[in-house]
Write a structure and sequence with these properties.
By secondary structure, the chain is mainly α. Helix content is 75%, strand content 6%. It has 17 helices and four strands. A four-stranded mixed beta sheet has the order 2-4-1-3. Helix 2 packs across helix 8. The two termini are 31 Å apart.
């Protein structure tokens, strides 16, 4: 009785030749095929999509409500704009920058474990923030601890979509990311209500309870049975061998994310304070973040559906919308002089930044394939985190130096335009993405098979 030899070829001319043998039974191979086919794009996949929606709603809702807290902290602690901006920029930066750690947890354990751990850590950070006596304490508790917890949630919530969807992956990703827009719409007024009713310290305690719900929805991220071990082995090649980073398209996408994250961080952290400086009320200024969320929510879903159409090029949409929001941000000072203008800018800002967020994960899949999705997303999110880290404080420094928010939003516009320009160079490079194919041969090994992953 002869077994079969299965070879998985990772095709990328930048990768060195290497072979890693993995032994498995022939019946397991058959079961893996059947189970993957039954789970993809159907059944529990929709539960995973909804769970991802809620998790991303929590992550973005908390991280991008920092602008509401920023106005309160400026008044309560009396620090300058640059110092205070570190609180809001760090929670966004850390949540994105810990993508590498969440990728490791996802590959080593599962999406479920990473999300539950992240929910616990984020809850601890929110509760600790209620006892802050200085901006520096908030930088650690809110910016670093809560941000790290949210970061452990974000990447596996997207990776789970990649595991459970194939034909409808872009739509499912877009729908899940729409949760982020819903969070940006719901959380700022909710946090503002908590602050007015229970003080900012009480709001952190209440938000800690809200954040703990991440663990419940993380528990719904059921790992695919029988495929878990095999996927860990395949992903292990990507985790331990980072030669896929030689893919120029992925590098360009990473730097593009760094630039747009810088611009996005400036908008979310400083827009409310900019509106207050132009004689808006604090309530009206916090509502601008919700207006961003409205535009973001609607256009995330539209972008996700449109990107599924074969005539739509995701890279062109990604670059084009970033260019548009860059030009809009350069015109922002003209719109911020009236309440209607402020809302109009916030709506356009939310609309045209949505596609960048929605299309990053599908573009990563185009460049490196699902087998490396967790690791590649971790790298991209790290660069995004760096952008969030430097954008808002730099804009705050510009305000402290010049006394004008105009220059801060000029900087935001330049960042978006640079992001658009960088990714336009991607089609010039023709790296093949990492793909898996199967070649079946007979061999002399009884009652079993040998799976080889050959990189050439």
């Amino acid at each position: 009785m002869f077994g079969s030899t299965y070879s998985l070829y990772i095709s990328d001319r930048n990768l060195p030749t290497n072979t890693l043998p993995i032994t498995c039974t022939e019946s397991e191979i058959s079961q893996l095929r059947d189970l993957d086919h039954r789970c993809m794009d159907r059944g529990w996949a929709w539960v995973v999509m909804l769970a991802s929606f809620v998790c991303l709603m929590m992550v973005n809702g908390i991280a991008f409500s920092a602008g509401v807290y920023n106005v309160v902290f400026l008044e309560y602690f009396g620090e300058n704009k640059c110092t205070t901006a570190w609180v809001g920029s760090l929670i966004s930066a850390t949540s994105a920058g810990t993508g590498v750690i969440s990728s490791f947890l996802t590959n080593r354990f599962s999406c479920r474990i990473s999300i539950i751990v992240g929910g616990v850590v984020a809850t601890a950070g929110m509760v600790l923030s209620a006892f802050a006596q200085s901006v520096q304490f908030l930088v650690v508790s809110y910016g670093l601890v809560a941000g790290a917890g949210l970061g452990l949630v974000y990447t596996p919530a997207l990776v789970a979509i990649g595991y459970y969807f194939e034909e409808r992956r872009v739509f499912a990703t877009g729908f899940a990311l729409t949760g982020g827009g819903v969070g940006v719409f719901i959380f700022p007024p909710m946090i503002k209500f908590f602050i007015d009713k229970y003080s900012w310290r009480g709001s952190f305690l209440l938000m800690g309870g809200v954040t703990l719900n991440i663990c419940i929805f993380g528990g719904l991220m059921r790992p695919l049975q029988l495929t878990t071990d095999t996927r860990k082995r395949k992903e292990g090649v990507a985790v331990t061998d980072f030669t896929f980073l030689r893919n120029t398209k992925l590098i360009l996408l990473s730097f593009s994310c760094l630039f747009w994250a810088s611009g996005l961080g400036i908008g979310f952290v400083h827009l409310s304070a900019y509106a207050v400086a132009n004689d808006s009320s604090e309530l009206g200024a916090s509502f601008l973040i919700s207006v961003i969320g409205i535009g973001n929510t609607v256009f995330r879903l539209i972008t996700g559906m449109a990107a599924n159409h074969p005539a739509v090029d995701s890279l062109t949409v990604y670059s084009g919308t970033l260019g548009i929001v860059g030009l809009i941000s350069l015109c922002c000072p003209l719109l911020m002089v009236t309440t209607v203008g402020q809302m109009f800018y916030a709506l356009l800002f939310g609309m045209y930044t949505s596609s960048a967020v929605v299309l990053v994960a599908p573009l990563v899949v185009e460049f490196v394939a699902v087998s490396s999705l967790a690791s590649a997303l971790g790298v991209v999110n790290l660069m995004t985190g760096i952008g969030y880290l430097i954008g808002a404080p730099l804009a705050g420094w510009l305000y402290d130096t010049t006394g004008l928010y105009v220059n801060s939003f000029y900087l935001s516009g330049v960042c978006f335009l640079l992001s658009s320009a960088v990714i336009l160079a991607a089609p010039l490079f023709g790296e093949e993405k990492i793909v898996f194919t199967e070649d079946v041969k007979e061999n002399s090994q009884p009652n079993g098979c040998m799976m080889k992953i050959s990189m050439k």
